[in-house]
Write a structure and sequence with these properties.
Helix content: over 70%
Number of strands: 0
Oligomer: single chain
Radius of gyration: 15 Å
Structural class: mainly alpha
Distance between the termini: 16 Å
CATH topology: Four Helix Bundle (Hemerythrin (Met), subunit A)
CATH architecture: Up-down Bundle
CATH class: Mainly Alpha
Largest sheet: none
CATH superfamily: Flagellar protein FliS
Strand content: under 5%
Order of helices and strands: HHHHHH
């Protein structure tokens, strides 16, 4: 049994979070990678919007980032089967969501930087295991 949601569930979650890419035929591993990519893109957009004082764009980008975390990455965790790792990731995603909310309220670029620094190692680790995950899926 997988520690993550089914490919069909991940595809649905991915589409709901607003990350725009074709998910048909993507592996569960690739879907999670796309969520990480979409999250980092939303964070960069939020930073740009804060720098240009575009409040609406900032709010939209941060909202999208929170949705990717909550409806995408968190929902992909299997807290029953995933053990300590899934619980730790769940806690980290909740913390990053909190910091994003604070960044939105305070126009806080440092909070957005912190979120990027917390997520980037996970994104990179996920990318690093891609060859092994794809082989295992065959």
């Amino acid at each position: 049994m997988s520690r993550f949601a089914s490919p069909r569930d991940l595809g649905s979650v991915y589409r709901k979070t607003g990350v725009e890419i074709d998910v048909h035929g993507a592996s569960p591993h690739r879907l999670v990678a796309m969520l990480f990519d979409g999250l980092m893109e939303a964070l960069a957009q939020a930073q740009g919007a804060i720098a240009s004082r575009n409040i609406e764009a900032k709010a939209n980008a941060i909202s999208r980032a929170v949705r990717i975390l909550d409806e995408g990455l968190k929902s992909a965790l299997d807290l029953k089967e995933g053990g300590r790792l899934a619980a730790d990731l769940n806690d980290l995603y909740a913390y990053v969501s909190l910091r994003l909310t604070q960044a939105n309220l305070r126009n806080d670029l440092q909070a957005l930087d912190e979120c990027k620094q917390l997520i980037q190692p996970l994104r990179q680790a996920w990318a690093d295991i891609a060859p092994h995950a794809e082989q295992g899926a065959r």
